[in-house]
Amino acid sequence: MGRLLKLREAHKTDAPATCSVLWAHDGSHLATSCASDTEVLIHDLSAPPPGRSGSNAGSSPVVLRHHKEGVTAIALGPMAGPLASGSFDHSVKLYNFPVGSFQGNVTRFTLPIKSLAFNKSGSLLAAAGDDDGIKLISTIDLTISRVLKGHRGSVTGLSFDPKHDYLASIDSFGTVIYWELSTGKQLHTLKSIAPNYNSDSSVLNTLSWRPDGEMLAVPGLRNDVVMYDRDTGEKLFNLRGDHEKSVCSFCWSPNGKYLATSGLDKQVLIWDVDLKQDIERQKFEERICGLSWKPVGNSLAVIDVVGRFGIWDNPVPVSMKSPTEGVVLNEPHPLFEDEDEEVLGKGISCYSGSLDDSIEKGSGDFSPISRKRVKKRGPSFDEGEEVLQEIDSRKRRKESENKRGDGGIRERAVRMQDAFQVGFTPPQQGKRRFLCYNLLGCVTSLENDGFSHVEVDFHDTGRGPRVPSMTDYFGFTMAALNEKGCVLANPCKGEKNMSTLMYRPFGSWANNSEWSMRFELEEVKVVALGKNWVAAVTSHNFLRIFTESGLQMHILSVNGPVVAAAGSGDLLAVVNHASDCLSSGDQVLEIKVFNINEATQTISGRLPLTPCSHLTWLGFSEDGRLGSFDSKGNLRVYSDQFGGSWLPVFSADKARKSEDENYWIVGFNATKLFCIVCKSPESYPSVMPKPVLTILEFSSPLASSDLGADEVENEFMMTNLQLSEIRKKIKDMEAFGLDVTALDDEAFSLEVKLDRCILKLIASCCHSDRLVRATELARLLSTQKSLKGAITIVTASKLPILQEKFSTILEERMLDDLKTPEPIPTGRSNGKTAYSVQPPVRLSPMMEKSPDLNNRTPNTIKPQIKSSPATETLKLVKARSSTPENLAQGEDISKERELGSKLEKLATFVKGKGNATSEVTGKDVSSSATGNVKPELKIPINPFARVKKVT
Amino acid sequence: MAGQTDHSISIFSAAEVEFIAEDEMIEIVPNIRMNALNLLCGDFGPFLPQIPCTVPLWLAVALKKRGKCSIRTPDWMSVEKLTQVLEAERESPREFQPLPFHYVEISRLLLDHAHDDIPEVYMVRSLIEDIRNVRFHKVESGLETISGRTHAVKLKNLSAMEVNLVRPFMARVLQAFYKHDSPEMVQQADTSASKRPQVVDRGPRRDLRPR
């Protein structure tokens, strides 16, 4: 039918508005609505002869005037089921159909409703719109059974999977979400696959399952309709043809063989989906915004944006198969309201339904019906075919699940996780994505037809080299980046496209220093980059190491399939699978760290993960510590303590402020984690706008203790960890005979910090009456000053027992120091060797204390005083003055002022005691002890420091 | 804001108010690595690329001008927040919505210097203009209600620029009303403030005053 279709006015509108049209299941009635009209009309088409239903000008439609504002969506339940309408007035109403009597209000929203959908059995109604969340309403008792939240824009299209497993929804940004109906979870989120109409409310995105539920049709970005797989959400194929503008509406023929699409170009096309070709078309004066196939027979109802509707007879040429051929009609039955029973019921009702249908309209459509009848005569054949299809689809689903990899593991971690490149984001159609993102910069790629554009950007625009963008014909999917260059690699795609590794140095004196390697029958899985070397781990479990200029230096074997690799400086870390997953779903991973320069292996062992999680990040911090991050949001850092172990230092669950935050880690340093916060449902950052790093503090997974000072305890743990790291480094550097003054300073300030922390803990111990713990803590204090601070604390909290204990500790400490005065002068002569000189007699490494010596010696060894730097004394003053301030949050500062005088009294007390006990050791001791304590307490700077703190 | 008040008699000029507003803090995302700046007004930084930090507006603008950072638009400057505020302003004719004290100046500075960092910049600009107009209209209509019995006017959430515009007028109006209300004050004013001719010319007003 090539002529222009005549349209009849149903709704009056001033401006173009979205209208909808629906067929009754027996084809006798037609319901129409319009977004600028408050009425819903039910047109009775049975009165005039069925052949000419398009021109029934005589019968007046049933008018439903229940909405206060324009009706934006209508939906029809199965077979004589209720008619639902949603409107700008925020309400959803139900009517009897086709009578048109009002049944009731279903629900109210706070914002306009944009779309409605019934499931196949009619037991559920989904409604959504500008509100946050899709409401699933049980039609039996009109209760809200679930609210699905996840869309950012207004939801404009909903479609229930005919098999009742999923619900698909689309929003005005063009994002499609597959929801699992049984759990309400999001299975797949396909971002921006449809046109973005967020700024244009006159066009609503829509989507629709094929009646057999095997694929989902979504309008595409290139004036096409794209089909997505039922289970995996993967793109299957698209229907692209003569639409000159985006497709705005479509409808599947009842048998799923044909698809009617209408575009913004005012055309309606009929497609043969199997052939992926358009078979018929019609142009209209206005844009068609609603389409509906007649459930029985070969007709299509259309409605345009000005509210005029019409019926297009025989849109599918009579010579072709009828659009209703092979339809399984679902007869509603009160018994079959339950979903499980419904499946059973389908089988029974299908034949009676189709028979009814063919009898009913035997005279109307001649040729298609007769053929259909012939087909229907052999039900066994049809059944068999269906079963075959079913098996086929299951098989495909299995396959695709295997292919899925990353996403699959998240649901049930029974598979070994795939290799991944650190800092990459998965590809998204038509969008730039990260091949690599680290603290230094990023490598991004945008795929265009057949090739992509790769860009390298440094975060620090002041210092990083400017790198020209490049066109990439290989299809690189992984990259690694450091200051000197970047390495790119692609997996092999078929036989023609071999896996390639390419290195681009950023600054080189030679012209052509870019190089690439090709791998035959081998595939690069991950790449890493370090100081003057490039590493790639391949599918053959080879670790290949190249120099910066492309020389093939080493080829090592890795123990199992690689998972990830990271490089920094001379160190390369490689994680691989040690065995198949455990039955509990835990990944069994193994890690090795190589020093490429020295050709040694520094760390080797299992990589711990949180149960049922997988590795998502691996990397080195700036100071060369190794860390791993898993999908449950736990960061572990490798430490030499206890012969090399992984310490959990961060947990996303604890740090998370709101439920919908995902942390995408970028890096870490000694005390902090750098990450990009992604709002759910996204778990990856997008390239534009430029992501901003968030800094999160480390926190140990501490048990909740009776102290009620979790933060301080956490700080205590972290400072201890830091201190041990620094001590180790100092030791290492001293072994090489390097200068460690800077590190010494750092260690000292850490010790002071630790002492402050311990003092706070002592205060809270005093509060909660944990005296033994307080004494233990006091023993951990590293400087005598802090110990004296501790004594003031216990004095203030009126605990004489503790005061005595602490004084004893202080005495012991002083005595110890006096017993070993010999090495001090040598240690003094060059301050940095103080550590090697210190005898390791302390209870724990935390008790080692050189700064104490620094602080004490000025009295005894006058000539060397100059060598103790002024900064250090300043620090001491600070530490001194800040200890009382930080005693405890609850304590009164004004009280602390009094403590100054108390301290002095105490000192005399200590002095007295010291004298009493040290008489045995000799006068020398006591005199030095007094000389020690007194001047310190009277340090003239102290009041100034105090004043400074107050201001 | 239309020139209802003569700017020359304002206590501060617009530029001066803007200068004061430049001390407000704002978040920036630097794209350079720089050590902390130790300034008289405080220490800012250290600046690490892509890691947000908080600095005074003047510093943010200075860095932005050199292309060293991008400024993060404050929460209240998003289109949705501003739309809400505008609606609320229109709905409640007697109240002002809480906005930053220097919202006019901050938004002006950001729109001038960091327009590429503001999402939907045109929308934001027009919304802020609308809000300003609506609010000033409120101030104007509020001024009309001032009568001889008004001793004080309570204006909650009024912003710096708005206050600055109406303050001289308002103070003088109240003063004038006060003077006219109390005869002693009028006599005093006679001697002290004889510059004002309208105060001197009080013959007819005398008749009107006793009610």
From TrEMBL, chain A:
GO terms for biological process: DNA repair; DNA-templated DNA replication; mitotic cell cycle. WD repeats lie at residues 64-96, 148-189, 240-281. Its main location: nucleus. One of its GO terms (cellular component) is nuclear replication fork. It is found in: Nucleus. SMART domains: WD40. The keyword Membrane does not apply. The lineage of its organism: Eukaryota, Viridiplantae, Streptophyta, Embryophyta, Tracheophyta. Residues 359-409, 911-935 are annotated as: Disordered. This is WD repeat and HMG-box DNA-binding protein 1. Keywords: DNA-binding, Nucleus, Repeat, WD repeat. It comes from the Eukaryota. GO terms for molecular function: chromatin binding; DNA binding. Residues 711-814 form the WDHD1/CFT4 helical bundle domain. Residues 915-931 have a biased composition (Polar residues).
UniProtKB/TrEMBL annotation, chain B:
Residues 185-211 are annotated as: Disordered. Residues 76-176 form the GINS subunit domain. It is found in: Nucleus. GO terms for cellular component: GINS complex. The keyword rRNA-binding does not apply. It comes from the Eukaryota. SUPFAM superfamilies: GINS helical bundle-like, PriA/YqbF domain. The keyword Iron-sulfur does not apply. Keywords: DNA replication, Nucleus. Residues 198-211 have a biased composition (Basic and acidic residues). PANTHER family: DNA REPLICATION COMPLEX GINS PROTEIN PSF2. Belongs to the GINS2/PSF2 family. Component of the GINS complex. This is DNA replication complex GINS protein PSF2.
